Amino acid sequence: MSTPPSGPNYSWQPGDYKSAPTYGQPPRKSRAGLIIVLIVLLALVALGAIGVLAYRLVSDSRISDKEPGSAASAPAGNAKPTPVTRPTATRATVVRPTTARPSVPSRGAAGATDLARRFVIQLNANNSKGAAAFACKGSEQLIPLLMRTLVGPPTKLTTGTPTGQAPTFVIPLSGTSKGAAVTGVLVINQLDPAPLCVRAFQITTTR
């Protein structure tokens, strides 16, 4: 036990004594480290549980995909390709003026009028081969030559009332050719026993 200090200028008080430390007891440790360790352990356990759950979900998904009869589990080599239906190419039908000589139902002026109408259709279509099919013997080359010289698109000719009698009929022509107004005549022959035929034609521009 220590002796209180003494002296002329010191006044001793009862509270000046300090208690001595207790011996034989361990010092108190801080609990902060223990709490951190517990938090880390809990986090590891939670992560492990999440990993196990994710693994089970992936395993269940793979098993369901490999079930027999599933379209996704079928081997790619056994799958048959779906046939592709390609559209069939179709060719457009082109209607061309006929080059064959049509039959004339009657002779005389009525037959000449019908033949002239059919011949003018070929002139309006600028079809020299079709027009030559109506030509008389000896005029097969003349008709295409007259067409190249006198007729040009756009052409729109019409026929009039025939004049004359067998063996020669003259049919008036009128309309437009090469964009200009024209008039002319068409000469049709009827020589027995040959059928009606076109001998020649002529058109001129009107002013």
Q: Any overview of this molecule?
A:
Keywords: Membrane, Transmembrane, Transmembrane helix. Residues 69-102 have a biased composition (Low complexity). With 207 residues, this protein is of the alpha+beta class. The chain has a domain at 108-205: Nuclear Transport Factor 2, Chain: A, CATH 3.10.450. Helix content is 31%, strand content 17%. It has 4 helices and 5 strands. It has helices at residues 32-65, 108-124, 128-132, 142-150; strands at 156-159, 163-165, 168-177, 180-189, 197-205. Strands 1, 2, 3, 4 and 5 form a 5-stranded antiparallel sheet that branches. A hairpin with a 2-residue loop joins strand 3 and strand 4. The chain is rod-shaped. The chain starts with 31 loop residues before the first helix and ends with a strand. Mean pLDDT is 74; it is low at 15-20 and 69-76.
Concise synopsis of the structure shown:
The chain is α+β, with helices and mostly antiparallel strands and 207 residues long.
